[in-house]
Amino acid sequence: MEREVDKHGQGRTDDQRREEIDAEWRRLSAVAVAILNRGGDVILEAELNDDIPRLLWESDLRPARADAADRALTVSQLMVGRFFFVHESRATRDTGGPERSFEFLHATFGDFLAARQIVASLVDLAEERIHQRRRQGVIDPGPLYAATSFVTVAGRPPLWDFCRGLLARLDAGRRAICRELVLELLPEAGYPHPTWTRNDYEPYRTPPAVRHAAFSANLVCFAVLLSDGPVDAVELVGEPVVVNWRRQALLWQSQLEAEDRKRIWQALRVAWRLDADPTRLEVRPEDGTEISVYESLPWPPEVRPATRQPDDPAAVLAPDVSVAADSRIGRSLRRSAFVQTAHDVREYLYDLMPYWQGAGTPHLIPIDGQPFLISEAALFLRLLFSPPDAQPREQRAKQYRMAFAFTTLPRQRDLLIRQFLDEAPGFSDADLQNTVTTIPAEDLLDLIQRNFPTEVNNSLRERLMQIHRTMWDA
Fold first, then answer.
1. 89/58 same-domain check
2. Counting beta carbons within 10 angstroms of the beta carbon of residue 352, is it exposed (0 to 12), middle (13 to 18) or buried (19 or more)?
3. Of 12-16, 23-27, 173-177, 419-423, which has the strongest mean pLDDT?
4. By three-state DSSP, how is residue 269 classified?
5. Which domain does 338 fall in, by range?
């Protein structure tokens, strides 16, 4: 960037040179924000010409010492032509004319530049807020709103990492004033503000609710990233916290694009602090730690779960369960905690808590050429709790075969095998053999010896031994 500035003119003072370097960064970062807000990695020339004047102040649109050749160029030509790391391509559309498009040679560099511009806009606005307070003036969040009301900073992992890193590098004073700013803006994020500048910036037509959702989601992300620990959700949405947080989270889930919708609950961990008095809902960056069932599901103010204190009798009867954050159950709990909407199914989820400690994962299996999702938990519980005569023997045997094929946890497998042996005398030789052969020969022999000692004359033992001999010979 410095080389680019020095190439286009000499005789600047150090301050003028530094100002022009900063302006070049803003110009290039504006290109990155324009590409980001349009939802891809490429932007057409006409789109860039339309967006850039709405993302920069007039003084930044052209270099301070533009020559005659520069003044004859379009905004996009001027911006892109000065930076070797922006790639230009041409294509001919149905109109017959060539159409130019631009993209960064490395998409991650575009994410860095967009993060740089977003954080710079946040810091500038926070500092302006300090000055305007002294003068009893009004701040203009328009530039920040323009940069953060179309996509969320959580939507692209590199963008999230860059924003998190840049915010972490701010000194304590700047972090504090930025945090105060976003908490001040949050209650107003859902309302139109016609006096804010850059209101004419709209890279594509979108309902106001979508922009309100993206802007408020970004403000919450900034508040969390600017905090030194978990954030009390009351600071973010006010009281009643459960109702207000749910309303806000459901706005995000209903209005944001699919990737933003998914990434925001994956980027933030929402959990109840049940050991606090009074309990409170907290938000922090996702840290990959195990997730607790009790801390995840919503609780009405008048009800609280048993604590995990050893001397609490209720905790012995209904202990909490924690699961890996990236397990199937963990992801489900994190999503449920994020929206705080599991009131109606909470008690049913508790019924399964002992199983969750060792729950397996769903399996995709082909049936008639089509993939079907088979739940290990459903197979296990159906066989364990349904009566043997609830379905035809042939179908029952097929369910056992699938359960043996997918159940890998020793305790579950042992329970299934014991129950299968209770029902096995009623199976035909073909069903018995087809089911038993899903068990390795060594495990089958151990199963026979543990359940049917040699001194016991049992017809089922003889049938199983014959199947084992056939397997061993094969």
1. yes
2. middle
3. 173-177
4. strand
5. 229-304+316-359
1: which residues sit within 8 A by CB, 6+ positions away? 21, 24, 25, 28
Does residue 421 share a domain with residue 334?
A: no
Strand partners for 273: 280
Q: What whole-number distance in Å separates Cα of residue 224 and Cα of residue 237?
A: 13
Chosen domain end from 44, 78, 105 = 105
Final residue before a domain boundary, out of 72, 105, 138:
105
Computed on alpha carbons and rounded to an integer, the radius of gyration of the chain in Å comes to 31
Cα distance between residue 391 and residue 388, in whole Å: 7
Domain count, the chain: 3
Q: Let me know: does 167 contact 121? Beta carbons within 8 Å.
A: no
Beta strands in 333-458 (DSSP E): 363-367, 370-374
Could you tell me if 353 and 390 lie in one domain?
Answer: no
Q: Taking the model in full, what pTM does it have?
A: 0.76
What CA dihedral angle connects 412, 418, 423 and 425, to 10 degrees?
Answer: 140
Beta bridge partners of 374: 363
- Residue at 207 is within a domain: no
Q: Tens digit of pLDDT for each residue in 98-120?
A: 678 888 888 899 999 999 999 99
